[in-house]
Amino acid sequence: MTQLVDWIYAAARPWIVFTLLAVALVFTVFFQMKAKSYPPCFSTFDGSWFYTPDAARAKLEALGPKGRNVYRSQEIQLDLVFPLIYGFLLAFALALLAPGTKLPRWIVILPLIAALADYGENFSALAMLGRFERGVSLDGIPWLGSVCTLIKQTISRGSFIVAGALAIAAWLRK
Predict the structure, then answer these.
(1) Is the pLDDT of residue 38 over 80?
(2) C-alpha–C-alpha distance, residues 101 and 107, integer Å
(3) Distance CA 120, CA 149 (A)
(4) What is the DSSP letter of 126?
(5) How many CA atoms lie within 13 A of 170 on its CB side?
(6) CA–CA gap between residue 49 and residue 151 (Å, rounded)
(7) By CB neighbour count within 10 A (0-12 exposed, 13-18 middle, 19+ buried), where does 156 fall?
(8) Whole-number Å distance between alpha carbons of 75 and 61
(9) CB-based burial of residue 113 (10 Å sphere; 0-12 exposed, 13-18 middle, 19+ buried)?
(10) Fewer CB in a 10 Å sphere around the end CB: N or C, the chain?
(11) For residue 78, how far is the Cα from the chain centroid?
């Protein structure tokens, strides 16, 4: 882990952070375009903090066949890359902003843990979509996906808040 932390600090550059931010914003537009195909008031598993197998089944049912196809394509096309984008965006931002603070060096790993949890959530969503459409029980997959979602939401939002607070503090010091 020390080597990864050292690499993140060595590789972090402002232009990389701004490039990843621009790419993340473009992805956000694509996610919004996909969301227009969902039923009103629908949120994907990504937008939840926790869900049970019954709630997951109800969510998949509410999507309908067209919505499930859109969701599957979102998971395969956009969510295959997006966790890496925001994970490294936040890791590099923290690496640039944290030196000189009392934060531990390993804080830069947290966004990558969130990205890994996001992959667990995404693979769980794909597995649930496949099982639902085959009429097979979702079994424990929603529990796994829900735990991954909770980890992702907590760590990614926490990382974003810390990076934002550090950026504001750096700006105020100037």
Answers:
(1) no
(2) 11
(3) 8
(4) H
(5) 14
(6) 9
(7) buried
(8) 17
(9) middle
(10) C
(11) 11
> What is the token pair recorded at 163?
């990076």
Q: Which of 95, 6, 84, 78 is nearest to 35 (CA)?
A: 78
Q: Which of 48, 163, 152 is nearest to 96 (CA)?
A: 163
CA distance 4 to 27: 26
Rounded CA gap, 83 and 63, in Å? Answer: 23
Q: Kindly report the average pLDDT of the chain as a whole number.
A: 91
C-alpha–C-alpha distance, residues 69 and 43, integer Å: 15
pLDDT band with cut points at 50, 70 and 90 for residue 144 = very high
Query: What's the CA gap between 48 and 50, in Å, rounded?
Result: 6
pTM attached to this predicted model: 0.90
Give the pair of three-digit tokens for residue 36. 């227009």
pLDDT tens, 39-90?
777 778 887 888 889 999 998 998 888 888 988 998 998 899 999 999 999 9
Question: What's the first-to-final CA gap in the chain, in angstroms?
Answer: 33
Picking from 119, 123, 149, the residue whose alpha carbon sits closest to that of residue 55 is 149
Cβ-in-10-Å burial (0-12, 13-18, 19+) of 66 comes to: exposed
